[in-house]
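Help wanted!
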Amino acid sequence: MTAGTDEVLSFDEAMEKYDPVLGFEVHVELNTKTKMFSSAPNAFGDVPNTNVTPVDLGLPGVLPVVNGVAVESAIKIGLALNCSIAEKCYFARKNYFYPDTPKNFQTSQFEDPIAHDGFLDIELTDGTVFRVEIERAHMEEDAGKLTHMGGSTGRIQGAEFSLVDYNRAGVPLIEIVTKPIEGAGSRAPELAKAYVAAIREIVKNLGVSDARMERGNVRCDANVSLRPHGRETFGTRTETKNVNSLRAVEHAVRYEIQRHAAVLDTGTPILQETRHWHEDTRSTTSGRPKSDADDYRYFPEPDLVPVVTNEAWIEKLRAELPEPPAERRKRLQADWGYSDAEFRDVVNAGVMSSIEDTIAAGVSAAVARKWWMGEISRRAKLADVEPAELGVSPELIVELNALIESGKINDKLSRDVLDGVLAGEGTPAEVVEKRGLAVVSDDGPLLEAIDGALAAQPDVADKIRGGKVQAVGAIVGGVMKATRGQADAGRVRELILERLGVEG
Amino acid sequence: MAEINRDDVAHLAKLAHIDMTDEELDRMAGELAVIVDSIKTVSEVAGDDVPATSHPIPLSNVFREDVVGDTLSNEEALLGAPDNADGRFKVPAILDGE
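Answered by r_m:
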């Protein structure tokens, strides 16, 4: 590949001279059971060309029929994006020749999308809220999957032939298009990432998409143009296609800003074209210039009748909408009393819902956070899974916490208890019993261990006697070691000071 | 509507991936012009108050339940394909397009 050969300006320098304008087209695959216009299964990862009907293959004489659930999902997305819902809208044929559609057209919507003129308030990491205007959200169908064979691996260039799987052809898609986004300045890359993250979160929260970017459930085309500061008219834009991770969206926008700036600095106009994103080199390469082939000759789809909405239907769907993610976060943070930083960490760790459930099961917000952000996150990281996938139930945390609060076990022992429970050894109480993990609270064995620890570190003992109370930690450590962690550290500290006749 | 001229036909032929000789382009331009003229007479009757119609029957909201139905087997799906490999349709590598 010839990736990364373009000149780029430093991001700071680009920002000094130019003002970026962004625009996004995000495609969301719906998680309906069947396709948009046929009753073939909408499923990922099946044997190629088995989730197909004659409709999906565009065989002669077939008649597509609209999936009613997909229409309702589209309306819900529109409502969640604060859009107006069209009273009447049509499907249209977008004509082009490419083997990813066997029909030689994609069924889409053209002049009258089902949802239009909305907005989404995007919160950046420092709390700044940026409003992105939504131009439209329309219904269409996904294309088949092409695998380019021969030549270099998987790339179009040099390929000798392509293999086509139409399992994905006809999967319901909602394309969400923004209006030009102005005024983001140097926060443009961050905003790009946050916008796509917000869309993903909304469609997942609505339950209308699995929203797994690694499976292509949410895909982003990012438009970038630059104009000198103070100029009203937009510069020429490029469209970077299929940027399919949140990190890549941020990097692609940043890269295109830097590349545009370098081109404009030489006095050369920007070529209006599509660009391909390369994750390995974190750069884009030239795709296809805008040409006559972009004349899609849209016309109304004669096989599909219009979709007509009414207020009762829309209000019924509106009533079914879940609490918007941003509002939910605000409510939970206020309820739990977490600081902004604490709450952000919780969100980023993906444990907000787990904490909510755990608090509902009966522990304090602080205890729920301690478990999910501490021990459970640590284990999830080691196992390379999501914390929620470890099988730790809210009830288990409540039981463990009750054992700690009753003084039966301490924090350190609770981890062993968790091990036992996850290994199927029974309830926390049973594991404590079977493994003999209860805290040693009888002072007799503790005093024995303390005497041993003091004898082992006479110099430390002297320091403490001399008033350096903070040195007691070394003795406590020795005692904990001797009791294999089964002592109550607070009690041990008290006993050591008593033993040495020092005030704590 | 503007008349259909030879350049329009050449453009459409290119979009449709149809090779046409000069002679064919000339003939088609003439024939299409007649058709367009004929259709134009509709606009003499239908004024601005008549919305464009794509469906002759006033139906709307014909929806299907989201229930999985019969599908083709992989063999059936590939029956009409000129060529296939690995259970997939085999096509020449094409550089342009989406």
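OP: Thanks! One thing I noticed: The mean pLDDT of chain A is 91.
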